[in-house]
Amino acid sequence: DAGVIQSPRHEVTEMGQEVTLRCKPISGHDYLFWYRQTMMRGLELLIYFNNNVPIDDSGMPEDRFSAKMPNASFSTLKIQPSEPRDSAVYFCASKNLAIGAEQYFGPGTRLTVT
Amino acid sequence: QQQVKQSPQSLIVQKGGIPIINCAYENTAFDYFPWYQQFPGKGPALLIAIRPDVSEKKEGRFTISFNKSAKQFSLHIMDSQPGDSATYFCAASKGSARQLTFGSGTQLTVLP
Asked: Out of A45, A91, A104, whose CB is closest to B99?
């Protein structure tokens, strides 16, 4: 298995632009998590899905952030409009609860908003 | 209640030393305590995990010590190597969804 796949790996955009981050979880995994990592706040859970259904989005910082999971093999995290303070590394992780509690992280997307 | 406090923020040891990273939690409902290792430019990866019914778990050079009454757990790295230089995160979770709450991370440097 290729692991969790995220794209793009790097994104540089101007303030006010829309940004879409993409994630392909490991096949067969029924949970998908979106995290944000910054020096100041560490690793923060933004939202997670179970069987494509959003379960907890309390970590989404503002209405500018939205996430979808249209099917078991794809999820997006959208920021519209983007702001400089959104600059961070965004990670997607997935797991199969029936196998165990381990979450498998993707390589992350480094977002820079200028 | 959801916080996991991790210390130290950074740690430098000589090769062969035994770095120790500590974490403390408040929520007694937590029932799963993993440690993740992260190398620069990579996502975190599970290193070792423990449940509160045991006080210690070893996997290779990595050991978790768990003190349920004190609500603390720690990671020990025996015979540390320069390749162990990374950022280490403790975490905790409860419930079937295993939603993780992460500590703030410890940047470990092992000098050759």
From this structure: A45
